[in-house]
Amino acid sequence: MNRLRLTRWLVSLPPTLFLLLFFVVPSLLMIVTSFRYPGEFGGLAPLSVPATGLAEEGSGLYGLTLETYRFFFSDILYAEIFLKSFAVATATTLICLVMAYPVAMLIARSAKKYRNLMVLLVVLPFASNFLIRIYAWMIILGPESTFSHLINSVLDVLGLEPVMLLFSPFAVLVGTVYVHLPFMILPLYTNLEKHDPVLLDAAQDLGANRWQRFWRVTWPQSLPGVFSGSALVFIPVLGMFAIPDILGGTGDILIGNLIKDQFLGTRDWPFGSTLSIMLTLAVLSVAGLATWFARSRTASSN
Questions:
Q1: Neighbour-count burial of 118, counting CB atoms closer than 10 A to its CB (0-12 exposed, 13-18 middle, 19+ buried)
Q2: How far apart are CA 60 and CA 96, in angstroms?
Q3: β-pair partners for 44
Q4: Which of 82, 87, 127, 287 is the most buried (most CB within 10 A)?
Q5: Could you list the residue ranges that cross the membrane (predicted)?
């Protein structure tokens, strides 16, 4: 019994320490930082009056405060940036789902000798650097690229004004879909591969057409893969800042860009921490709603 308990401790200790060191402790530091004043030249103001009896030179601010939260809720601009980030994340997730589902189904229904090769092709872009792949899209969507000339030629024939593809919301959406598409394909493929084809044959024998077999048999069974893939796409896109920085314009700032600017640009660590906490709460709320919805669907289907 003692040996079994020791084995459990040895197995659970490394991941527990990892979570404590790299999730719990940083989260606590971020929460405490959000209640601090920013330092005059970045960083944090002191918690108490310095030994000289004066606060930081030129600032006069020290201790704990709710100023960052008051500032966040007093300006509707931050709510708009949050809504824009949610819109981009939702659009990216839906587009990835529509594009990934047929690909995952094709892989799952292919002969076994071809599946590994097809999965390899899906993950092959990860063999190259992330930034290199994003900068490649700058060439593809650039004003002098063949793709841009083709699009603008079509628009010219239709009597419409030419468009700038690069540094636009369209470019940001293309970049996020391109980067996160494999994260939707793989969970869907893992789920669809386990489906029993006998159920489809039984539905066909009962008179169900192709669409009815998909909607009544395949789709309900694939929901766990859909939820997993959606989480793997939605959550990273919500905090993404590299793609909007490279492919987006001045009007394409998302919440991830704003947090990065607070830490690296204006060096307002407390407000950056407040934005990070708000983003974390938003992600947890979405995850909670998705879990509740998934459980309710499972309970209703049973």
A1: middle
A2: 50
A3: 38
A4: 82
A5: 12-32, 81-107, 119-143, 163-186, 223-243, 271-294
Q: What are phi and psi of 26, to 5 degrees?
A: -60, -35
In DSSP terms, which residues pair with 38 in a beta bridge? 44
Alpha helices in the chain (DSSP H): 2-19, 25-34, 67-74, 76-108, 112-123, 130-141, 146-157, 169-192, 197-205, 210-213, 219-238, 242-247, 255-264, 269-301
With both helix axes pointing from N to C terminus, report the angle between 255-264 and 76-108 in degrees, rounded to the nearest 10.
120
CA distances from 159 to 73, 145, 151, 162, 243 (A): 45, 21, 12, 9, 32
The answer to pTM > 0.70 is yes
The tens digit of pLDDT for each residue in 120-170 reads: 999 998 888 999 999 999 999 998 899 999 999 998 898 888 899 999 999
Domains of the chain (ranges; CATH) run: 26-65 (no CATH), 76-301 (1.10.3720.10)
Separation of alpha carbons 97 and 226, rounded Å: 8
Widest CA span of the chain, in angstroms? 87
CB atoms under 10 Å from CB of 79, counted, come to 12
